[in-house]
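About this split. The held-out portion is used to measure sequence recovery: a designer receives only the structure tokens and must propose an amino acid at every position. Recovery is the fraction of positions where the proposal matches the reference. Here is one held-out target exactly as it appears in the evaluation file.
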């Protein structure tokens, strides 16, 4: 005689919806706390200036040309050096794409001045009117 009916035991299940909720919250937290700062490819010692502005102070993004201590030129964030002739051609192409393009020179403090002048000449040949330079505030490392 059997007075009670034996129920089948259900296998425990993982509630997937709760796991997805936790993962979404973690993803939002990581996205909110991550900094999106671009780090330059070159480590340069910028010259000091008492009138230095913050890096993102201009409303439009400028095209950046880097000049390192040896005098190698780099356009944008490219890791390989660019020759002055290639730089002139690249600046002319950028000028055709955007007639209001601005050029920013990021030169090391000990960079050869002749290379900086070549960059400015290339900008003039390309027809770029606005050329600025990156500096750091006096007294900052």
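Reference sequence for scoring:
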């Amino acid at each position: 005689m059997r007075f009670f009916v034996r129920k089948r035991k259900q296998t425990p299940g993982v509630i997937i919806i709760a796991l997805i909720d936790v993962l979404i919250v973690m993803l939002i937290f990581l996205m909110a706390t991550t900094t999106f700062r671009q780090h330059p490819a070159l480590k340069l010692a910028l010259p000091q200036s008492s009138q230095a502005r913050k890096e993102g102070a201009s409303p439009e993004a400028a095209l950046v040309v880097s000049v390192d201590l040896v005098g190698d030129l780099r356009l944008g964030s490219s890791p390989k050096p660019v020759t002055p002739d290639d730089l002139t051609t690249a600046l002319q192409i950028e000028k055709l794409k955007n007639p209001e393009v601005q050029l920013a020179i990021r030169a090391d403090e000990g960079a050869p001045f002749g290379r900086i002048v070549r960059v400015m000449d290339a900008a003039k040949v390309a027809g770029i009117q606005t050329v600025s330079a990156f500096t750091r505030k006096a007294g900052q490392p």
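Annotator remark: The first helix runs from residue 16 to 33.
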